[in-house]
């Protein structure tokens, strides 16, 4: 993996680990933006326009475009009416009859509109916008409407439907599982023309509605080694784990975490599997036990280039079983880096400061107390060995 890709992966991991479990937005969608329904809801005026004519730009003049209002979706105090002409301060590359959706905001308390957004649109896309449920409708109910427009032939509509899912919390996505078009999703995952940015979502959706045949389809896509960054692999692994549980995780261990005869998966593939483990722990409601997920994460301690991520996650999951092992690794060979040392110190800080009854880790209170005491002891040892790194870690601890 190129060094800059490694940096990006580490920064992404840090962002995830400094925040609580994500509760808003699809975990595997690669982009998110305000949807058309949200833009319409926030606007003061929304109209369907038809291009009439344009005046070309010159050296000091940007040109203008004139449109006729065909339909008023939203307005205030009759600020705009059907048949009105709207001028846009730019010469659009359009021909007479082309359709546009225009979105504007009210200026002050008067009847003047500042037109802020002009979107070329087709009649089917306009119907999609007009019929879309408003943002205040419960999101799970709204998503039932947008399911049918995923991979719609009109790219504006398909992208917008994707963004509706991208903005949705996982619990609302899971709620529409009975309505998902399983056969279509299979096809989208198998078609090379499907945008890679959507593959993670479709892998997750198939995990919510699929069967053992779909698990095999996902396995065939997940298992191969590859050096290239594969967008959506994290979502496909998560979908596979939703369908297969612990037995599927055994396979993921072999494909992405274990080193076989000196051969291991690309860092980008392993990072995608780490994301899937995080998803299963934070969102999937015990489909795979925490202890089994920790078992997989511990495998990454064998890979120095990824061990800092694993240590941080295991601390966040309150797995105090690796204290002795981490102390044996501290400062040794390829583990003698500031990044790994800091991760180990933060792990010990989290353990030393943990106050709980053991329920989080499945251990008894006495076991938890022993682990906490051991963490304090090891932290003092590290403070003597590397006082400056410990001091910095205490100031900027990422584990919570």
Care to describe what's here?
Residues 1-23 have low confidence and may be disordered. The protein has helices at residues 3-17, 36-42, 123-131, 139-147, 155-166, 170-175, 182-190, 199-209, 212-222, 233-257, 267-282, 290-298, 304-316, 323-329, 338-352, 365-385, 387-395, and strands spanning 45-55, 64-74, 85-88, 99-106, 113-120. A hairpin with an 8-residue loop joins strand 1 and strand 2 (64-74). It is α+β, with helices and mostly antiparallel strands and 400 residues long. The chain folds into 3 domains: 1-32 and 167-305, no CATH class; 36-131, Beta Barrel (OB fold (Dihydrolipoamide Acetyltransferase, E2P)), CATH 2.40.50.120; 318-400, no CATH class. It is 51% helix and 10% strand.
Average predicted confidence as pLDDT: 88
The shape, in one word, is elongated
**What share of residues is helical?**
40-55%
Strand order of the largest sheet: 3-2-1-4-5
Fraction of residues in β-strands:
5-15%
SSE string, helices as H and strands as E: HHEEEEEHHHHHHHHHHHHHHH
Count of helical regions: 17
Q: Return the structural class.
A: alpha+beta
For the largest beta-sheet, the strand count, sense and barrel status come to: 5 strands, antiparallel
Distance between the ends: 29 Å
Query: What's the count of strands?
Result: 5
Rounded to an integer in angstroms, the radius of gyration calculated over CA atoms is: 26 Å
Contiguous runs where pLDDT drops below 50 for at least 5 residues: 1-23
Total number of domains: 3
Quick take:
The chain has 400 residues and is α+β, with helices and mostly antiparallel strands. The protein contains 17 helices and 5 strands.
């Amino acid at each position: 993996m190129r060094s800059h890709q490694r940096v990006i992966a580490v920064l992404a991991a840090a962002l995830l680990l400094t925040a609580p479990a994500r509760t808003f937005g699809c975990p595997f969608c690669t982009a998110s933006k305000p949807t058309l329904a949200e833009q319409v809801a926030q606007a003061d005026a929304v109209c369907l326009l038809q291009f009439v004519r344009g005046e070309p730009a010159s050296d000091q003049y940007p040109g203008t475009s004139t449109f006729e209002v065909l339909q008023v979706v939203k307005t205030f105090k009759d600020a705009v009416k059907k048949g009105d002409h709207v001028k846009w301060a730019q010469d659009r590359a359009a021909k007479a009859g082309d359709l546009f959706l225009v979105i504007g905001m009210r200026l002050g308390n008067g009847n003047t509109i500042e037109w802020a957004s002009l979107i070329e649109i087709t009649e089917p896309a306009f119907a999609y916008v007009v019929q879309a449920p408003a943002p205040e409708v419960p999101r799970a109910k709204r998503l039932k409407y947008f399911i049918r427009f995923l991979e719609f032939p009109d790219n504006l509509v398909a992208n917008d439907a994707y963004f509706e899912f991208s903005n949705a919390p996982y619990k609302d996505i899971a709620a529409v599982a009975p309505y998902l078009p399983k056969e279509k999703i299979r096809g989208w995952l198998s078609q090379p023309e499907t945008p890679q940015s959507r593959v993670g979502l479709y892998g997750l959706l198939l995990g919510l509605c699929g069967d053992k045949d779909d698990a095999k389809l996902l396995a065939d896509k997940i298992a191969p080694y590859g050096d290239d960054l594969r967008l959506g692999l994290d979502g496909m692994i998560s979908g596979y784990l939703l369908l297969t549980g612990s037995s599927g995780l055994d396979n993921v261990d072999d494909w992405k975490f274990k080193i076989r005869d000196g051969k291991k998966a690309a860092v980008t593939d392993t990072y995608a599997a780490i994301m899937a483990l995080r998803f299963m722990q934070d969102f999937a409601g015990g489909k795979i036990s925490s202890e089994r997920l920790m078992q997989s994460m511990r495998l990454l301690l064998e890979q120095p280039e990824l061990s800092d991520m694993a240590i941080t996650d295991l601390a966040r999951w309150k797995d105090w079983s690796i204290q002795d092992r981490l102390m044996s690794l501290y400062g040794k060979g390829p583990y003698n880096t500031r990044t790994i040392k800091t991760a180990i110190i933060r792990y010990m800080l989290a353990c030393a400061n943990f106050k709980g009854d053991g329920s989080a880790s499945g251990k008894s209170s006495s076991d938890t107390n022993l682990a906490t005491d051991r963490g304090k002891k090891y932290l003092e040892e590290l403070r003597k060995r590397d006082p400056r790194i410990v001091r910095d870690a205490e100031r900027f601890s990422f584990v919570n």
